[in-house]
Structure formats: C-alpha cells, structure tokens
Amino acid sequence: MTDVAENSSALRLKRRVRVRLGMSGSIHLLAAQIGDWTWETVACLCHADVLSARNEAGAPTYLAFYHIRVRGGLALHSGSMRPGDRLVVAATCFRQGPMSVLTAHRIERDGSGDSEGSLRVVDDSPPNAVELYERPRENAMYVETFNHWIARSSPDSNSDLVKSAPPEFTTDHLPELPAAYDLRSTFLRARTKHTFHDPDDPEYRSSAETVEFEYPVDVVRDLNGVGLLYFASYLSLTDKAAHALWRRQGRSNRDFLDRIVLDRQISYLRNADLDSTLVLSARTRTHVTDLGREVVDVLIRDRDSGYVLAVSTLHTLNPPQEKSCPNL
After folding, report:
1. Number of other CB atoms surrounding residue 89 within 10 Å
2. Could you give the angle at the alpha carbon of 88 between the alpha carbons of 85 and 89, nearest 5°?
C-alpha cells in the first residue's frame, strides 16, 4: 500500500502509513524511513529540493542529521511496530537559523477500520513545542530530527565537512522553538559529558561492566548513496555496542530483543571516511529501586584520530530477569 501524504496547511504535513517489512525490526530500518519523511517534510515546508540540492557555488549540499531523538511508551515504541500496522504521522518544522531545521513527527496508531477498543487518532494536527517537551500524548511516539546543511570541503573526504545551504532553502516563515526548549544545552552535554542523561543523577548507579571494541567501516552496508556514513547506520552501531555489553553481562538475545527503548538520543559530531576503523564503547547505569530501568551510554570514536563521531543515550525498560530458587 502506498503511503498517503497531504500538506494540510503551509506549515505541516500529515501521512497515513501502513507499516512494511522494510521499516519494522531493527532501529536502523525505522530510522531510515523516518529520515525519508524528514527530508520530504523539509522539502515541502522549506521549499528546497533536498534530493539534489546545490549551494551557490554549484557544489552538492546535503541535509545531514545532527541529532535524533525517538521517544515512546508502553503502548507505542520503536520495537512495537509490526508489518500491516496502520499509523498516522503528523509533522512540522521549527526555525533553527539559516543553515538548520528541527523537524518533529508525532506517530500514532490509526484505529480507523480496526477492531473496537483499538487506539484511535482524534486530532492529527502537528505537535507544538509544549506538547513535545511538556505534555506528550500518552499513546504516541515522537521523533525529533535536527538537521544541518553540509558540503564537502574536499571532493573525496568526509572529514572537515562545512555548513552550506542551497539558496532556495528558507525557514523565516516557520515557528521558532521557544527559548525554554532550546536544544543547545542538550547538545553541549552530549559533547562534553558523552551522555544525554545527568551523570550525577542519584537515582541511577553505574555498572562496573563496560565494553569497548573496534569496528571497521563496512563499505557494503554502512554508507549512503553519496559516500557518507549513513545516519541510520550509526543507530545500528549503538545497538551493536549495547548488545555486546548486554551479552557480556550474561543476558540473553531474547531478552535484548524484548527490552523496550523508551527514549533514544544520538548526536552526530563528525562523519567517517571509507577506510576508517571505529571504536565502539558502552556503559550502563541502573535505577536504584527499579532494576528493570537502565540508561545505556554509547560512544563512537575514530580509532586513529581519537575524534568522537557520535554520542548516544538509551533509556530502556528491560524484561524481568529470572532468579534462581534457593535449595530447600
């Protein structure tokens, strides 16, 4: 079934979607679909041809992902979508300066035509800032993507990318994110503390177990069509690091798949060249009273330069662990 999208006003886009195999399962599959929705939304609301954009010098420029946040709940989260599910996606954009844009998607189950008692969308207007950051809907999933326009400073290198927008890109007509919800402090914490969660939060204690391993960039599966390390591949790598730590802690693959990721954030600080070897590391913090709640921090670095390429934090709700019965 083809997705149905409509530009219901000059500042919002609405889609009715049927979940396909290609967007369910691993997080990078869903992220790839959301990335396409983001580009389509920006193209529609910001009047730019994101698929073949060029800057004033005539060089290709790309709407790169700088930050992504995916938040859900028990009713709807990134691991709960199944092929055939029907969704309503309402999206809008916020002004973030001449080179950047924030796109917000609200994803809800579309109950029209489903059995009685299913969740139903009653208002598919796009999310505003208050809804995003203070009063999210109970049964919705939210995705925020912060994008910069970038161009290569050297033709065949992914190092030293520079900001460069196409001349037709405009955000002057978009709503501005209120100062109370400014994202700069969030980005600063990620760059300096390598986490999106308060490192001094007394409700969580750090685990002594950590993991770190090397990962050569896989040119067969990690790159996008313009030779950059695909933003969705980074999400796959964060789960790869989280899974390695999970297994080191003696937990099963089934329990890893059954965990619920309630909140996932990642900031992309640099890209990687084709021949790069990355270093993936992960650590966990566990809630002091609810042992099923964990914070997982993942860091992706370039092995040779030492540069941090990406920082990610996952808030997870894990399945109960079986306890052995004492001998009687």
Report:
1. 24
2. 120
pTM here is 0.89
Burial class (CB in 10 A: 0-12, 13-18, 19+), 22: exposed
d(C-alpha 54, C-alpha 75), whole Å: 42
Q: Which of 2, 22, 193, 16 is nearest to 113 (CA)?
A: 16
Instruction: Walk me through the domains of the chain, giving residue ranges and CATH numbers.
Output: 1-182 (3.10.129.10), 185-328 (3.10.129.10)
Q: Which two tokens stand for residue 314?
A: 């996952």
Question: Nearest Cα to 141, choosing from 227, 57, 81?
Answer: 81
Give the up-direction half-sphere exposure of residue 49: CA atoms within 13 A in the CB hemisphere. Answer: 5
pLDDT score of 321 more than 90: no
pLDDT tens, residue by residue, 31-55: 999 999 999 999 999 999 999 999 9
Helix axes 27-46, 231-248, angle to 10 degrees: 150
Residue 6: the pLDDT is 57
Question: Is a pLDDT exceeding 80 seen at residue 224?
Answer: yes
pLDDT digits 0-9 by tens, 250-289: 999 999 999 999 999 999 998 888 899 999 999 999 999 9
Q: What CA–CA distances, in Å, run from 111 to 6, 22, 24, 29, 310?
A: 19, 22, 19, 23, 37
DSSP secondary structure code for residue 84 in this structure: T
CA torsion, points 5, 106, 300, 315, in degrees to nearest 10?
Answer: -150
Q: Are the C-beta atoms of 3 and 87 separated by less than 8 Å?
A: no
Q: Give the whole-angstrom CA distance, residue 25 versus residue 28.
A: 8
